[in-house]
């Protein structure tokens, strides 16, 4: 799932991917970036965003279990 500005930049709110159980969040990012633009720049390592696996924020690469929900969350602003 893609939230906020990422949803707008990537022109999608969600998608389903066939995934090998145990493949990591780093591997998912590499796969998505390999699609080219706008994926490469929107999910670039220098951009600030968080990743959640099954609604738990992660702070390093983790294995993604089968049927997991992965969310990409940009910084939130507002008042």
Task: Kindly describe this structure.
By secondary structure, the protein is of the alpha+beta class. It is about 25% helix and about 15% strand. The longest helix is centred in the middle third of the chain and has 9 residues, at about 25-35. About 10% of the residues are buried.
Helix-strand layout with pairing:
Elements lengths: L3 H7 L14 H9 L5 H4 L7 E4 L2 E3 L11 E4 L6
Antiparallel strand pairs: 1-2, 1-3
Could you give a quick summary of the protein structure above?
Helices cover 25% and strands 14% of the residues.
Categorize the overall geometry.
Answer: globular
Strand order of the largest sheet: 2-1-3
Q: Structural class from helices and strands? A: alpha+beta
Structure annotation, total helices: 3
How much β-strand is present in the residues? Answer: 5-15%
Mean pLDDT: 93
Largest sheet: 3 strands, antiparallel
| Count of β-strands | 3
The level of helicity is 25-40%
User: What's the Cα radius of gyration?
Assistant: 12 Å
Could you give the order of the helices and strands?
HHHEEE
Query: Which regions contain 5 or more consecutive residues with pLDDT less than 50?
Result: none
Defining traits:
alpha+beta; 3-stranded antiparallel sheet; globular
